[in-house]
Amino acid sequence: MNLAPKTKKIVAIGAAGLVVVGVAFVAVLALLIRDAPSHRPAITAFADGNTVVVEPYLYCPVETPLCDSDGSSARVPVREGHPLQLSLPNEVTSAPWILAAVYADNSGGAVESDTLFLPDERVSLTIPPVDDDGRDLLGVEIRLPSGVIDSDTQQEEIISHAIWSIATSPV
Predict the structure, then answer these.
(1) Cα–Cα dist 133/78, whole Å
(2) DSSP, res 130
(3) In sequence order, which residues have a C-beta less than 8 Å from that of residue 146 and are 6 or more positions away?
């Protein structure tokens, strides 16, 4: 195909313009991705016909696990015959994680039961509103543990760098 010189010039300018626009688009996209806020995974809780998306109570980067909490506990009331059901995202279940279930004892205090789950062992849980000893469920926490070294003692400590908190006081 034989094009006139003027047509060739217009096509070349158009092609150069498209290249400039493409490079600018990629540069802007790269800046947006780099400056995007980090994703904070959420847990889905269900009980007695109510579904709640539970944002983290505490969520620190693994590299800096000692940060301040900026979240709050979600409230998902439970009652006998209607257990708390949790659906956990891959960001939680792909690492070791802990379920802390807190039940009321007869003296007005609380009893905590911790269960460690290994990576990819579970993606959902059902927690009874009343345990085998007849105690009411007060709440649960899902925790992602992290090891830190105490600079004074040089001893390793296990802390939670991420926590999802759910208050489940019976209705």
Answers:
(1) 17
(2) B
(3) 62, 65, 158, 159, 160, 161
Per the listing, tokens 């279940």 go with 93
Distance, CA of 144 to CA of 155 (rounded, Å): 20
pTM to 2 decimals?
0.73
Phi, psi of 3 (to 5 degrees): -105, 150
Distance from C-alpha of 140 to C-alpha of 163, rounded to nearest angstrom: 10
* Contact (CB, 8 A) for 98 and 146: no
Q: How confident is the model at residue 31 (pLDDT cuts 50, 70, 90)?
A: low
CB within 8 A of 137, min separation 6: which ones?
Answer: 78, 84, 101, 102, 103, 127, 128, 129, 130, 131, 168, 170
Give me the pLDDT at residue 32, please: 58
C-alpha 71: how far from its chain's center? 12
Which two three-digit tokens encode residue 47?
A: 């009980």
In DSSP notation, 59-115 reads E--TTS---------EE---BTTB-EEEE--HHHHTS-EEEEEEEE-TTS-EEEEEE
